[in-house]
């Protein structure tokens, strides 16, 4: 098992999804990339992704994607924020193992334009997420 990553430019959910933020901002007027943490995948071999459709609306905390492993089990990805899905990661769709190998960079899942009612309420800072992980052990 490799060391867990917790990038400082993300906000996290207790269900191990993340959203990337621009420096010094909570939300913005442009799409934000989102994905799932390496903790959620727990060193599995990822073989398939089911991503939300472009132009679909996702709701914070609701299931929005599935990451399928070679063991025929799926990890449910819960939306970190509400908004409009503007794109999905074509590279990850073609090579799903990117999600496990580099979940915070080349393995991002989709981009979401935050809805006007989206907020950071319920999202964890990197320090809070690290605390959450250490308490779960």
3D structure, described in words:
By secondary structure, this protein is of the alpha+beta class. It is built from four helices and nine strands, in the order E-E-E-H-E-E-E-E-E-H-H-E-H. It has a six-stranded antiparallel β-sheet with strand order 1-2-3-9-8-5. The protein has a three-stranded antiparallel β-sheet with strand order 4-6-7. The protein starts with 9 loop residues before the first strand and ends with a helix.
Task: Furnish the topology, listing elements before pairings.
Elements (H helix, E strand, L loop, with lengths): L9 E3 L4 E4 L11 E5 L1 H4 L4 E5 L6 E2 L4 E7 L4 E5 L4 E6 L1 H5 L2 H5 L8 E5 L11 H11 L1
Antiparallel strand pairs: 1-2, 2-3, 3-9, 4-6, 5-8, 6-7, 8-9
